[in-house]
Amino acid sequence: MQNVCKRSKSAIFSPKRGATLMIPGGQDPLQQSFTETLPTEMSMRIFSELDVRSLCRASLTCRHWNDIIEGSDQLWRSHCLSVLAICRREVDGDRFAGCSWKVTLVRNYRKGCVKRRWLKGRYSNIRSADDIPSNSMCPLDVETWGEILEAELDR
Fold this sequence. Notes:
Oligomer: single chain
Strand content: under 5%
Number of strands: 2
């Protein structure tokens, strides 16, 4: 059974009978990304559900996804605001300097993760500098190290 869409004049075949959707221009629908068929706003809504690591990986998938993800400062904003709770001074400084949300996030994400781990007491059992894992150190300001020291003394 064939239906014709009056708006786009494309033929639509019923998948129940083994046929496929015909797209104007002859492109195979199975080779299209959802970002090519949905409005950009919908694609951004889908990408906004990803965590930072997944968002970065998605931006490497194809040029179209990269264009959408890299071109949307709003996608990075919410993730950056979660880092803001940990690295307020650094995030505020970067935003004041005119950095985009993505640049601000990239510059402060690792700091936020390191600070969060220290504050949670993940490294409380370390006895010497040699025992500190390499991924647990990064440049932090004096106030941050003061917070970490206070948390350790409270434990």
